[in-house]
Amino acid sequence: MASLTQAEPVTSPPSEFIRGIGPLAAISLVVGSMIGSGIFIVSADIGRQVSDWGPGALLLVWLVTGAMTVTGALAYSELAAMMPKAGGQYVFLREGLSPAAGFLYGWTLFTVIQTGTIAAVAVAFARFLGVLVPSITPDIFFPLGSLALPGAADPIQLGLSPQRVVAVLMIAALTAINVLGVRLGAAIQTAFSVAKIGALAVLVLLGLTLFRRPDVAAVNFSNFWGTGDWSLAVLPIIGAAMVGSLFSSDAWNNVTFAAAEVRNPTRNLPRALAIGTGLVSALYILANVAYLNILPFYGDPNGTDVMARGLQYAAQDRVGTAAIEVALGSGAAAIMAVAILFSTFGCNNGLILAGPRVYYAMARDNLFFARAGTLHPTYRTPVFGLVAQALWTMVLCLSGTYSELLNYVVFAALIFYLLTTVSLFRLRRLQPDLPRPVRAFGYPVLPALYIMAIAFLLVVLLADPQQRKFSALGLLIVALGIPVYALWRRGRTL
Questions:
Q1: Distance from C-alpha of 278 to C-alpha of 270, rounded to nearest angstrom
Q2: Each residue's pLDDT tens digit in the chain (494 positions)?
Q3: How far apart are CA 307 and CA 314, in angstroms?
Q4: Backbone phi, then psi, for 406, in 5-degree steps?
Q5: What is the DSSP pairing of strand 142-147 with strand 156-160?
Q6: Residue 157 in contact with residue 143, Cβ under 8 Å?
Q7: Concatenated DSSP letters for 248-288?
Q8: Closest CA to 441 of 79, 27, 96
Q9: CB-CB contact of 245 with 1 (8 Å)
C-alpha cells in the first residue's frame, strides 16, 4: 500500500495551489454541486415506482437517501481531515486500498461520472433556457448519425441542435472562468449556491403556507401509506426507487477533490461536508412535503390539467413546475425556468471546478497525462485537466440526452462510495497512529451501516429487471479501466 508520506514525483508543478476556498465557499461547493435540476423532476418517477405504498413511501425514499448521504459525508470527514490533498476521494482510495483502486475511480470519473453529469446538467440548462428563448430548440440541424446503447429504449441521435450548442457554450464559458483562478470560481459558486438555497427555501415555505391546498393535503396524508404490503418485500422497491434521489443528492464529495485549495482544511472540510449535506438533505425532504401539500400524489397520465396529472404524472416529470403552476398559473413555466437556470449553472460550475483536481493527482502519480499534473504559472489552476474535461464533455453533449447515461453510472458510483468507506476501516487497522484531526461520527457502527446499505442497493440494482442492463454497463466501464491502468503502469503513452 502506498504511504501517506510518499515523496512527490521529481517533475513538480511550477507552483502550488492557492488556498482560495474559505469555509463558506467550501460549504457552497458541497451545496452547489448537489443541487441541480433533480429535486424539481425525479419525485414524479419515484412516485410512480412506489405508487402502491403512497406518499409515505415517497418521503421514505428521500429520508433514507438523506440519511445515507449525511452518514457517508461524516465518514469521509475523517479521511478528508487526515489527507487534505488535491484529488480527495482518489487519494483516499489510493492510500486506503491500493493505487489501482484510486486509478479505477479516476478513470470512471473522467470517462462518465463527472463528464457525463456535467453534460447532462448543461443540456438541462439549455432546455430550460429554451422556455425563455423559444428559438433554442432540440431540433438537430447538423446530424452525425445515431447510436444504440444497451438498455436504451431508442437510439440516441447524434448531432448539433440549438440546445446542444448552448450546452457546449456553457461548458466552455465555465471552464474559462475556472481557468482564471479558484477564487473566481469559488466566488461564483458561493453566489449561485446562496441563490439556490434561497429559491428552494421559498418554495418550501410558500408550499407549506400560502400555496398550500388543504383539500389536496388532506387526501394525500389520509392515505399516507397507501395500500401496498409493508413487509420486507417492499425493500427492493424502495431501493430501486432511490436511483433518482441518490443522483439528486450526489457530488457532495467534490469538495474533497479541491482539498489542497481549502483554507484550514482539517477544520473546514469536515464542516463543509456535514453542514452542506445536512442542509441540502433537509431541503429536499421539505420540498417533497411541500409538493404533497400542493399536488395530489396520485394522478392520471391522460389528465387534462396539472391537478388531474398529479405528482406522479406531472408534464415531462417537472414536479416543481407543476407545483408553481398550481400556485401562480400560467407564469409558472418562466419562473421555474429561471430557478433551474440558476441551479444548473451553479451546479456545473462546482463540477467543472472540482474534477480536474482528481486528474491532477493522478498525473502526479504518473497515472494520467503528465501535463494534467502541472498548474498555470499565474492562475495556479490545472488548465490541461480543465480543457481535457471540457473537450470530452462537449463530445458527450452531441447526444443531447443523458437519462440513460446517468443510469449507467449509478452502479459504478455506488461501488466507489462503498470502497472508500472500506478504506476508512482499513486505515484505522493498518495505520492507527496517523494523526486524525476529526474522527468519523458513530464509528464503527454508522460507517458499517452505510456500507451495508450500499451493498444492498448494489444487489437490488443488479436484480431489478429495469436496472440490470444499466448496472452491468456501469460495471463494464469500471472494468475497462483495468487494462488501461496496466498500460499506464508500464509507462506507455495512451
A1: 12
A2: 444 444 344 444 445 788 889 999 999 999 999 998 889 889 999 999 999 999 999 999 999 999 999 999 999 999 999 999 999 999 999 999 999 999 999 999 999 889 988 988 898 888 888 888 889 888 888 777 776 665 556 667 778 889 899 999 999 999 999 999 888 888 888 888 888 898 889 889 989 999 999 999 999 999 999 999 999 989 999 999 998 899 899 899 999 999 999 999 999 999 999 999 999 999 999 999 999 999 999 999 999 889 999 999 998 788 988 898 888 886 777 888 888 898 899 999 999 999 999 999 999 999 999 999 999 889 899 999 999 999 999 998 887 555 666 666 778 889 999 999 999 999 999 999 989 999 999 999 999 999 999 999 999 988 888 778 778 888 888 999 999 999 888 875 44
A3: 9
A4: -65, -35
A5: antiparallel
A6: yes
A7: HT--TTHHHHBGGGBSSHHHHHHHHHHHHHHHHHHHHHHHH
A8: 79
A9: no
- CB–CB of 474/410 below 8 Å? yes
Domains by residue range for the chain, with CATH: 23-489 (1.20.1740.10)
With beta carbons less than 8 A apart as the criterion, state whether 388 and 372 touch. yes
C-alpha cell at position 111:
470517462
Name residue 41's amino acid.
Answer: I
Grid cell in block for residue 256: 474533497
CA 274, 280, 283, 289 dihedral sign is negative
Residue 369 in contact with residue 384, Cβ under 8 Å?
A: yes
Q: Which of 301, 382, 399, 279 is nearest to 33 (CA)?
A: 279
